[in-house]
Design brief:
Number of domains: 2
Strand content: 5-15%
InterPro entries: CRAL-TRIO_dom, CRAL-TRIO_dom_sf, CRAL/TRIO_N_dom, CRAL/TRIO_N_dom_sf
Pfam family, one: CRAL_TRIO
Order of helices and strands: HHHHHEEHEHEHHEHHH
Protein name: CRAL-TRIO domain-containing protein
Number of helices: 12
Organism: Brassica campestris (Field mustard)
Length: about 325
């Protein structure tokens, strides 16, 4: 008899995953943090509620976690601190606060991230550490505080400064997005795109048809800095700094903190957490410099096609960019 409901699909997947033992079982406990069914549903959603495909995806994720020792990544600080500062200065991501529903708000500086001050492995390590801290610490804490499972976040993508030269970073961005797609599926509730220049509009137009409808429904391109729309779901204090520009009537918030900065409370708390867990392992020596190497998964056929489409469109824009304002500087309306 076929699966007729989402609840039955979750039941079937739970029966299958209950058979795993040893390291796979242990790392799965880290993944679900006590919210088993909510996390099983993430993998089912990512595979259109096909139990067999979701089971394969989840097992592959657990094997990747064991092989790459992901459970210990929050006790592997990026040292020295100057290197961590370099990573933060060139991989712009931070957490600015929470929505009124309790979801963490992550800000990502897509346009101004340069990824040019450290090796690929450090950027991947940093990204996974933020994912794991989000899932093990932030979401777990907010779930307990609110008395209900909170298993997703929202992301605000700042396209300020996006240029044709971003094409050189597409390989690293693809590695990171593939890791997320395969091992952290359905962790983002909504993507809000702000400060979008013309180049984003042109690329989004050709990429959108290649994406699953489930994904495109999550993406909201907002006008300008998106402040007015974002204030419908979060308080002013949770707005990313790049969404507060041009504010009026909020003089006490004029000195907004750059949430990308290594000095922002989120990054200070994260780095302290990782250092503390390293030290409590009983390590007799200071942490040594060296990145945490993680296996890079190959992007699927859809991912490869998307990358090729973006590359093609950006080359087309470059070839057409000869009249009027530079293509990088034009703005776009949602």
């Amino acid at each position: 008899m076929g699966i007729v409901s989402e609840e039955e699909a979750i039941d079937e997947l739970q029966k299958l995953i209950n058979q795993v033992e040893g390291p796979l079982k242990k790392t799965f406990e880290r993944v679900h943090q006590g919210y088993l069914r909510e996390n099983l549903s993430r993998f089912l959603k990512a595979r259109d509620w096909n139990v067999s495909k979701a089971h394969t995806m989840l097992l592959d994720c657990l094997r990747w976690r064991v092989d790459s020792e992901i459970d210990s990544i929050l006790s592997k600080p990026i040292v020295p601190s100057e290197l961590y500062r370099d990573v933060r200065d060139s991989q712009l991501i931070g957490m600015s606060g929470y929505t009124r529903e309790g979801l963490p708000v992550f800000a990502i500086g897509v346009g101004l991230s340069t990824f040019d001050k450290a090796s690929v492995h450090y950027y991947v390590q940093s990204h996974i550490q933020i994912n794991e801290y989000r899932d093990r610490v932030l979401l777990s804490s907010m779930s307990k505080k609110n008395g209900r499972p909170i298993t997703t976040c929202v992301k605000v993508l700042d396209m300020t400064g996006l240029k044709l030269s971003a094409l050189s970073q597409i390989k690293l961005v693809t590695i990171i997005s593939t890791i997320d797609d395969l091992n952290y599926p359905e962790k983002t509730n909504t993507y809000y795109v702000v400060n979008a220049p013309y180049i984003f509009s042109a690329c989004w137009k050709v990429v959108k048809p290649l994406l699953h409808e489930r994904t495109t429904k999550k993406v909201h391109v907002l006008s300008g800095s998106g402040k007015d729309e974002l204030l419908k779901i979060m308080d002013y204090t949770s707005l990313p700094h790049f969404c507060r520009r041009g504010s009026s009537g909020s003089s006490h918030h004029t000195q907004s903190v750059d949430c990308f900065s290594v000095d922002h409370p989120f990054h200070q708390q994260l780095y302290s957490y990782v250092k503390h867990h390293y030290e409590t392992q009983g390590q007799g020596e200071p942490a040594k410099q060296g990145s945490f190497h993680v296996g890079f998964p190959e992007p699927g056929a859809d991912g490869v096609q998307i990358v090729k489409t973006i590359e093609s469109e950006m080359h087309n824009l470059e070839n057409r960019n000869g009249l009027g304002k530079p293509v990088d500087d034009r703005t776009v309306s949602p």
